[in-house]
Structure formats: C-alpha cells, structure tokens
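Predict structure. Chain length: 298.
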Amino acid sequence: MRQPGEVAPCPILCVGNFTLGGSGKTPLSLALGRLAIEKGYKPGYLSRGYGGSTKGPVEVDRSRHSADEVGDEPLLLASVAPTIVARDRVAGARLLAEKGADLVIMDDGFQNPSLTKTVSLVVVDGARGIGNGFVFPAGPLRAPMHSQLPFADGVFIMGDGEPGDAVAATAEAEGLPVFRGVLSPHSPGEWQDERVLAFAGIGAPDRFFRSLEDVGAVVAARQRFADHHPYSEEDCRRLVAQAGRAGLTLVTTEKDAVRLTGRGGARQALYERLAVFPVEAEIPEREALWNWLAERLF
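Prediction complete.
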C-alpha cells in the first residue's frame, strides 16, 4: 500500500501515465494550464526536469536555461506559466505556492509518493494503450496495471484506437471517469506535399511521423532517437547532410527543437534549418473536464 505523501499548500493536479513516455502528458498539461488561466487561476508547473542536470528547486528561465540544465519539457511548460524544476517534489510545490500559484500542475510524477495529489489524471495513448500489458523491461508499464488504477482519479485517452478503448473500458469498470482528446497540429495546410526528413527523440516517434503524413507531408526519410535524446554534434551534421543530399526539409517536434537551441556549432546549424511541427491537445468536452477538476481541486 502506498504511503500518504506530504500535503502541499495548494491543490496538486498530477498529469501522469501508466506507461513509459509518449502518451501526450505535456501537451495536455499545457492545455490544462491555459484553461486554468482562462478560468481566473494562477497555475504553476512542477517537473522533475528529466534529462537536465539541475536538481532544483529552481524556476525555469527560458532566456537563460537550456534543456541540458532543466530538461526539454520544462522549457515548453514555462511558455505558459511559471515552472519549477525540482527532484524534491515537495520543495518544488512549496516554492510555487510561495511565488503565488494557487494550482500546481505536475507533468508526470504519478508514481512518485512523496507529494499528496489532489487529483491524478492519467493520460493514455489511444493507439498504444498499455502495449503488451507487461512491466518494463518486458513491456511499457511502469508498474502492474492493477496496482496503479486505485491511485488514479480519472483517465484521459489521447487519440483514437482499440488499445485506448480497452483501457477506457477497464477504467470505467473501476468507476473512473474517462475523458478524451486528440493532438492536433498548428497550420496543417502548410505541410501539403512537403518532402521532409523527419526526426524525433520522443516517447512515440511513429505518432509524430503519422501526424505529418496525415496533413499531407511526404515523409521521405525518418530518424528515430531515444526519448529525451541529447543530440550530438555528429547527429546534427549527419541530419543536415542527409537532408541536403536529398533536397528534403528537416522537421522535428517542439520538444526536440528546444534541445537544440542556444548550443552553437552543428546543433545551432541544424536548428537554424529546422521546420518545427507543433501540436496541441484539443479537448472536445473541455468544460466538462474543467468542471470535474474544479469540484475536486478547489
């Protein structure tokens, strides 16, 4: 049985997942932060800063910090609301409250017991669900499904697919509410017939490639890297050379792009040639989701 964690000075909304990476947590966290601001609240983000060297707690400064220091996701979150990177989640939540946040949105941390969550909303990729249902390294689960469900307050299915529908059915059988949404690209018409070399170091790179194809891009070449991949000078030189030889447009995700900024050398050269393919979480029943959250958070 998981022990209760420390109670923070303000409500904690944890946006987590059952599996390792690639479910759409960060886009949903961004959307929920914007929604909270729209409703008159002052949210702040709390992240461990995976891939960064900073232990924190420290507030992310997009003009000063790099992904090497604070991780890639916090740089994206800080574009919407104050963001604290902290290995110690309790200290991070306290700092956000001291800075005036009246809602802490945790991007990830569902399995971390140190901080009591007011609401835990678990995001599931509709196309992948929980994979083969096994725990890592045999499968994608962080822990057995039956041991995780009791700590979830609701489930959010991101995108369509039978695997996601199966998780939704399991959650509903346990009495959990299920919400749905999709990841939608900005300016999809810009990509029609564009021949691209697409590369990504995220949890679900194939979803990124499919999204490009869905808006009419011709993905002539694709390169997969591990989630949070720290691009080397050689990686960058190779990508630029490959795209140049084939006459392809280089394109990647927002999360990958922030790992290439402000670093000089071949990384900067790659960044300056990049087209970025941003996506955002669309929530058809956003008012219903907000009402459900607000009843439990405030």
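Summary: The chain has a mean pLDDT of 93.
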